[in-house]
Fold each of these.
Amino acid sequence: MSETVERHEFGAEVGRLLDLVVHALYSEREIFLRELVANAADAVDRRRFEALSDASLMLPGDASLRVVPDKEGRRLTISDTGIGMSKADLAQHLGTIARSGTLAFAKSLSESQAADKPSLIGQFGVGFYSAFMVADRVEVTSRRAGSEEAWLWASDGRGEYTLAPAERAEAGTDIVLHMKEDATEFLEPFRLQSIIRKWADHITIPITVARDGTDEPANEGTALWRKPKSEITPERYTEFYRHLGHVFDEPWATLHWRAEGQIDFTALLFIPGMKPFQAVEGERDSKVRLHVRRMFITDEAELLPPWLRFVHGVVDTEDLPLNVSREMLQATPVLARIRRAVTNRVISELKTRAKDAGEYTKFYENFGPVLKEGVWEDAEHRKDLAGLLRFKSSAVEGWTTLADYVARMKEGQEAIYYLAGDDAAALANSPQLEGFRAKGVEVLLMAENIDAFWPERLDSFEDKKLRSITQGSIDLSKVAGDAAELAEAADMSRLLPLVKDALGEDVSEVRATDRLVDSAVVLAAPEYGPDLQMQRLLKRAGRAAGAGAPILEINPRHPLIRKLAEKAAGEADLKEEAGLLLDLARLQDGDVPRDPVGFAKRVAAALAL
């Protein structure tokens, strides 16, 4: 036998290329099994296709891929009943690194008029060599369909390979990996099954893993997304959704479609029916799975923007070019078009379902804050997303939209007013609203952290500016409506400078206001710069520098202020009272007094009078 063994050198700079494959091309060692299974699946599909014109190549009825671990012998065998390889094929396709038989065959198919072309996974000729990440020697025994000869290709990946006659009872290929000492985990049946379920669960050819003398199924074998919608029951969709996302609820929406035209792809996406246990505010990357010809490639292709990261599902394409690693996707125009198409389809679905207010509320209460991130960061979809937002309001029960708000605006009202804070219930009782309620002006109540950011980016809706009621001085005199009957205003000429002097740099300004009715004081932010909620967030993040001191607004008609104005006119020292006014205003806005202990003492002393 040794006399018939032929030794050959690889047809490439094998040392450099194999080192690239083993140490740089793939980030996970388990990828070797995906690559070998993909090659085997291609071989079976290729034989099935060629059998259409040559009946002698017909696949056996039990065609499958077998994975057989041998822990004692430290060997792993992957067997298929595919097209197989001749001696010339072995030398050409395994003896020349980066020359892909699949790619050459796919090129020949491009001129074929056959309707039932196989869907081939391989595009580059290096996937096979990933076997050397886990094996120090690889043997390939193959028999070409239609031939009686079998050949053995063998190599340790160090510069040469051998070819020798062999025996195989039927057409197909056996790949035997002599595993490295540190790769014995890949001889555990459970580990092999989990890898196949992760990477090749939906290859249509049955894959089995030998365990205790029995071949156990390792893949589902049904690409649900490739089936017509008419053949899939709601129960089957739900089952797949739960399998895919490892969840137990039912999907709120199921999107299943095939895109044809400039790009061809199939998508099956799910919008969850409940918020996941792991907060969507944490991990921001979309995890929609990218498949190419049913083979899972990655869930890190960012097929949807971060603000749609709650969407689960699969996108499967025939058109996407891959680089040699399969893991690091090229930034191709095709991928960009798929992303755009999938994103637009999800937005369209949300718009349609938003017409049913009751159903849409279920979704919005789970994922509304995430959509607001899109308004902040995505200029292309900002206007569409603005129409999908919902808000609590000072004027109506339940949720409302920006469009509904605009429709209810008072005559003379120039802006969409909002109040941002940490708690919706507290916002509804905020003294910031008093003047607006008195004039019948509606204010949107926003209680998510993101609400301090996105209105600035949206800027306006239907030509109406969005404006925080805590920022600057708002003039409501143009708004139609009967003014409330208020007490006579006190003379503030002496009180205002006294309070400002007492508070010093704790406030940027002290001024009288007519936007308060029942409260004595309120805080405001300067006209330019962050509003009060943004200032609080910056302070919590340790970035309060530059935010500027707040403005203290005083109600000249309030009994307390009238009394203080009288004391000020009498040259009284109002330092303690000024401090109390500022601390009261801070408390009303959900903040804490500057000196909680001192504040408590001053309140106790005031109560004792």
Amino acid sequence: MTDDEDTPTLVTCALPYANGKAHLGHLRTYIPGDTYTRALRKQGREVTFVSGSDMHGTPIVVNAEEQGREPEDLATEYHEYFEETFPRIDVEFDSYGNTHDDTNFRRTQEIVRALEDNGYVYEDEMMVAYDPEADRTLPDRYVKGTCPYCGEEGARGDECDECGRHLEPGDIEDPVSKITGAPAEYVEQTHRFFALSELRDFLSDFVDDLEGTSNARNQPKGWIEEGLQDWCITRDLDWGVPYPDDDGDTDLVLYVWVDAPIEYIASTEDWAERTGDGDEWERYWRDGSSEIVHVIGGDIIQHHCVFWPAMLHVAGYSTPDAVMASGLVKINDSAFSTSRGRAVWLDEDYLDEGFPADLIRYYIVSYTGFENDLNFSWSLFQERVNNELVDTFGNFVYRSALLAHDSFDGAPDGELEDEVSDEIGTAVDRFEDGVEAYNVKEVAEAGMALAGFGNEYIQRNEPWNLLDEDEDRAGDVLYNCLAVAKASALLLEPVMPSAAERVWAMLDEGDVHAATVDEAFEAVDGGLNEPEHLFEQVEDEKIETLEERLQERIGDEEEDEENGRDEEDGREDEDEKGGEEKAEEDGGAGGDEEAEEDEKREGEKAEEDETEETGGDEIPFDRFDELDIRVAQVESAEAVEDSDSLLLLNVDVGDGTRQVVAGLKGLHAPDELVGERVIVVTNLETATIFGYDSEAMLLAAGDDADLLTTAGVSEPGTRVK
């Protein structure tokens, strides 16, 4: 990120498919994207936040055909749904368009013509899947089969669900039609191609300079090193942006991943038109005087870090400066999957139950690092809300405001103590460091840690007892408490805007949304409005009801599968371009068994687990195959404070970075581990060790922790089989 606070920033969120209602997978990117945007504004930066609905592509066509509707009718319905739904979770775009509007059509065709004019588009024959029974070709999600890269049967049209690789038409092996279920054939068809292979040097430099999360850099590096294939940019469909063929010799439409990201530009154009300066969009996309940050799901890194910048570069547009790519979403430690019922739906499961937006916003942003997998369970949700929001932040603010309101009829006079001033300064620094590092979790923790200090401060000083003994001292304490309450609400506004607004209303401090971090040091002065509780406890009965609903849904879907229903129906797990994480059957993450919180027990446990000879009960191969064992690269390593044996590592596992707690201290120097390729198990349960979540298990041999690695140069994320 640029250090120049005068540089305007454009933040974009990946486009949801206008194909179904919102769920937890969508929120995984839109809430952090909104949080990041608000945090930038807290620094006084000029920010524009845009997105839009993706109304094209085969999933929408397939869904519309199943419902007997026109694609435009279906897509328009869901575009309007998302447009109305985002404000309900306090996600506020400056512009929210859609790919089927005139601005996007015009801009898309202009860019494709530029690609042609610059010599990067050519015509060629290619093999495409064809269903002889239906007598039609099978673009993208109309075909399924075996992935040519990983060999798994998770290939669906233009993407493999197992390894996440983009697939070109004709790549899928053993293709099957999703229309009739019959084996498909391959036939030749004329298409247009973008000469991506000629842009290797540009893309290599682009990725090296890219900021954001490490997965957005590391994955493209591997693909570029493997060698880039030219990219087919047309499809044999009736729905989409027509290929700009001035000669009229083709009726193909552009591949959805051509026009979808161009909506970022189109939406910026619409924003500029509405704000009164139609050319204002060009400072973001033409003259390089600003910065562009994309917030996406980890399943679409290839599209945003390879295809998209290549198109922009050739067409003469500005390329992204940073890409923030999320990890996967899991439900109760299992892969998120709408088709299998393992999903939490925004309307029926959350908003209709009366939960305010702040709760889910806090959970999503604070649970784990953005590029790590996010695990959701209703019990964890209840625990975070009750312990952190109700008992820490909410309780501290309410007690401070109520005592001051009732005892002093407003904010008492006082002086900011050095201890309090230092804590506020530390929180502000932590907040700003988080923004600069594209780390929204750190943004949330900065404000919550300050509230935690406030809770400890008021407990230690007991102003309710001081009111009878030393009223002046009680006033000083409450003066400092209100200062902390104000500052913590200000720093938490990007995460929980509605709660922050209520706090500032109680303190009569004006507009928290327009305030910047500088105001964190300004104490509360004047009257107070009637205090109110910020949050309500989430009761056990409600959690039990929601968990039962989830389990019933999973059971119903599993029963449907047993009865032969085809779960891969065009709508499966592809409701959103980048917000919903793919339902990869990787399962949960786990912690290093050598590192237990009680280190004495850790040594005893290791002795119990270790045997002097091989053997024991044999297990079937399919049980071994359930383990997701991967090559990983150590990104950072540091000692765990106050621990005799633990190191805290961040490792790149190909689709994101995992935090690992491992008993390597004294056996491996942290700085020597950085850059090492190691072997990890990624689908064990997350373990909390010495207060840290361990999201994978690092494999090592013997008492000296000889790290397992590879003899070759396998990239992070490569599966061990």
Amino acid sequence: MSVKGQSGSEVSGSGTSSRPTVVVAAATTSIERDLITRWMRSGGLPAEYDTDATPAVLDLDSKVLAAELVPRSDDPLIVPVKVVWLPAARDGARRVRFSDILALTNPRNPNRLIQQWLVGRSSDRHRIVVAEPAPLSELQASLQADDGDPAPDLLARHITRRAVVALERSERAVIGDRYKVPRLVAEQIMDSVSFRRHLEAIAEEHNISREEVDSRARAVLRELVAVQSRLVTDLFTQAMRPLHSSAWSVHADESGLRSLRELNRRRPLVFLPSHRSYADAFVLGDILANNEFPRNHLMGGANLTFWPIGPIARRTGTVFIRRSFGDDAVYKAALEEYFAYLLTKRFNLEWYFEGGRTRTGKLRAPRFGLLNYVANAIRTGRVEDAMLVPVSITYEGLAEVAAVAAEQTGATKKPEGLTWLARYARNQRRSAGNVYVRFGEPLSMHGLLAGSGDPELSEPARDETEHSERTRKALQKVAFEVAVGINGATPITVNCLVTLALLGVRDRALTLDEVRAVIAPVRRYIEARNLPQGELSVLDMEGGLARVLGSLTDAGVVTTYSGGEEPVYSIQRGQHLVAAFYRNSGVHWFVNRAILELSILCAHMNPGENPVVVAWEEAKNLRDLLKFEFFFPDRDTFEAQMRAELALLVAEWSDELPRSEQVALSALIETGFFMVHRTLRSFFDAQLVVAERLALRDPSLKLDRTAFLDECVAVGTQMLLQGRLYGPESVSSELFATALQLAGNRGLLETGGEEVRERRRAFAADLLAVGKRVQLAESLDVSNRKADR
């Protein structure tokens, strides 16, 4: 319904004058009660709700309603009314500032004395809103449909909740959708018929009294439910803004936001951003708030519950979920019910589905736990659908990357706390360039699950084993599509290109012209594929590239030597993992090109065989080697993508071309650049370290994963010093862990005899061969050779 304020604007509704009216007033002070009374006497109540008799006015309190409203038999129309208090208007907006609370009161909920002052001197600071009314019989019927014949106290609580929610909706017409907050959540969940039945089943299954199960459920809900406060939301946003506003210029996809806002009128949105920084939530939250989105319910980990961030964040919509809750059936049931409740009420969710910040700069493998709760709400019919929104957040510079890089070589992660927060805030004072926030195409979770063969939403499974397997694969498909959506929205930044150039020449320093010579053909490739870009146009401006290199020098990533004829640039000693982080933010765009290069070189190095067959087999082998590092589509789609890459080289390509590998190789050289040694070498080198360490181990002994990864870091450092690895960015516990996952997928972690040892040796030999082809690509790279002229 529309809202009637003191200006007397029209109110629409569905009431009828033949029915008695009861006004339920959400008033907490005598000032508010007096305002509502005077408003009614002056004809404030809409005409269609008015009757000849003076309407009864009751406090919106379940005990009062149980005693004075529920017993009535004349089926009155119930009209919720409340007073809304507003902050002072500044620059066309009414948002609370820190200066507002110097009077020790909340401008959105002022104390009685401030209310009295505002009524007399600032009449624009309050509105009276009327919510959509409902007959008592309708409210009884809605509860009976779920719960049979309700007890008076249960019906009174139901009326109270419905009135509160209706008033919230009407209030948002005054204050804006960004202040949409849930009310009485725990109470609604505990009164839910489905949840009560679930708790009954848990009590019976685990032989626990129903009272104890209820008590534990209430405790879990108190722990889980975010108690959102509009005051804290405004102040927290202002307090946290310096953590990103001083460091970055934010570039958001405004067109994507407009379509999302329209979609949000029909469906709940689940925002799933890439996770590169602690600032991600603040950057995204600010953008959504400025575009009048309600604040997301952000699912967070217990590592950020420290004072004061934890208590404040909880009041701005953060839901802190235990890292592990094992077999706690009550906790799991409450969490699942909470997810279903939020989605049913169309509250938007947000979490970082990688499970933590990226350590390498590229997208990590997804975690499925929270996605499964959304899926269950859809499978059980509680929610018709939820729209998954892939979000790419890409930074040109990040102060925290150095600490993340150090952790990859054995440094201990510093625990979050006040000292950590102060240090983090101090580091954010330095300008770090741009941050790009892009939104991928929203994905229907119902559609993805059904299309992927989820047994609850498509053809039923034959047995429990098939049911479990199809459920798992359907959820994996959902996560894969989200990851592809994030990568597809991620732009290539100037720092990505510059670090790509400098990491590709080992520790050699490049002049400004040499850096430009490496970047130029890559930019032509980017344009040919119409890939998303950051502000790459800065490289076309006079002095633009020098400024980018200067900012990387200021950040300690690049070192500049200016003592000779002209400045030369190289990666700062000890900063290769940091540089790789920036390169890897866009590396996924070049993976297929790099695979194509290695496939053509493989065919060239095996002249006695059918070159086309050799190249396609090599492409499939490389895809399999990299499947835990990057998100590849199914084999048919992958082949189509590879043919598209090939068409960029040879427009008239045919598999029957004579000397096809020579034609393709010549075309590669003519492009002026090779990509594989700049993009994939560190991944293959890390795999080689793991493969060789495995080949030297006794296959009859079970592997200690932690000790093995520590060994890879130590031996990898030795191999680097010996020149067997190309660069320090290969010595990374994160890359070693993924390589070990690949080895496990190939059955190389199984205990056994000589057969296992031979397969491990063959794995290492394959990677040595790949390494030789990478070296050949480097030698053929024209842009690399410019330095030798």
